[in-house]
Design goal:
single chain, globular, 10 strands, disordered N terminus
């Protein structure tokens, strides 16, 4: 009986090439303008006959890394998107400066944090150029948590090809010198979706303030989680599906 089940399982996998093929995963390394090494991961479904994928860029919380997104990358990949996870400088694998000295985010000054948007745009431009036959940046979105959300807004302001939407978990008006209201006002065709925890009054207040500057759609969602940033994804299992569904409306 077990042998029959195994045979049927392999047969079903063979009939489903998208599932059987899995995903393509590439490690990305980009040098920032000041020589800091920025690491990222590009992943997209390996689907027979499909050559281009709309892209979602993920920018993590302060003090975490691109490995903390829980099930969100899996859900986005399952929905057919390419996923770019970037380690912001001083986090994860992006910890070596121009002199190859390990540098933690804890030791960065505000002038270093100010380089986050440029770091992100460099990664995006590199991926867009090197994977132009696969990754599609004419139709893309960003998901960022706290400082990642602020970086998303500032990076989107710099890039000519604007994302269709930005999702911000635990929005912040000004963190580590990254002040976003004015730049948010420039994104007049980019809808914003903010998410904050039940007890996170600072983020809910920030969302209300940022809403005044938004020139396009601006939605707010209160999670049942009492945490903040990307940790909300761990404590509220519904958030990954909610974010993926939101992005599906745009890409």
């Amino acid at each position: 009986m077990k042998r029959l089940i195994l045979i049927l399982t392999f047969f079903l996998l063979f009939l489903n090439p998208a599932f059987a093929a899995g995903n393509v995963k590439k490690d990305i390394t980009v040098q920032s303008a000041d020589g800091f090494t920025i690491k990222a991961t590009l992943e997209y479904p390996k689907v027979k006959g499909k050559r281009e994928f709309s892209t979602v860029v993920l920018l993590h919380s302060l003090g975490y890394s691109s490995q903390w997104w829980e099930t969100l990358p899996k859900d986005l990949l399952g929905a057919g998107y390419a996923v770019v996870r970037i380690d912001l400088r001083g986090h994860g694998k992006s910890v070596y400066n121009s002199k190859l000295v390990r540098t933690s985010w804890k030791n960065l000054t505000n002038s270093a944090f100010a380089k986050y948007p440029d770091d992100v745009t460099r990664v995006i431009e590199y991926i867009k150029t090197e994977n132009s036959k696969t990754v599609f940046f004419n139709n893309w979105a960003i998901v960022g948590a706290d400082i990642g959300g602020s970086t998303a807004v500032l990076a989107a302001d710099k890039i000519a090809y604007k994302p269709k939407t930005i999702v911000i978990l635990s929005p912040v008006v000004n963190t580590k010198g990254l002040y976003i209201p004015v730049k948010l006002a420039n994104l007049n065709q980019v809808d914003i979706f903010t998410i904050y925890g039940t007890d996170d009054t600072s983020s809910s207040d920030a969302a209300e303030y940022l809403k005044k500057f938004a020139q396009a759609g601006f939605a707010q969602y209160k999670s049942e989680s009492k945490s903040s940033g990307m940790i909300m994804l761990k404590n509220d299992s519904s958030l990954s599906k909610i974010i993926t569904s939101w992005i599906k409306e745009y890409l």
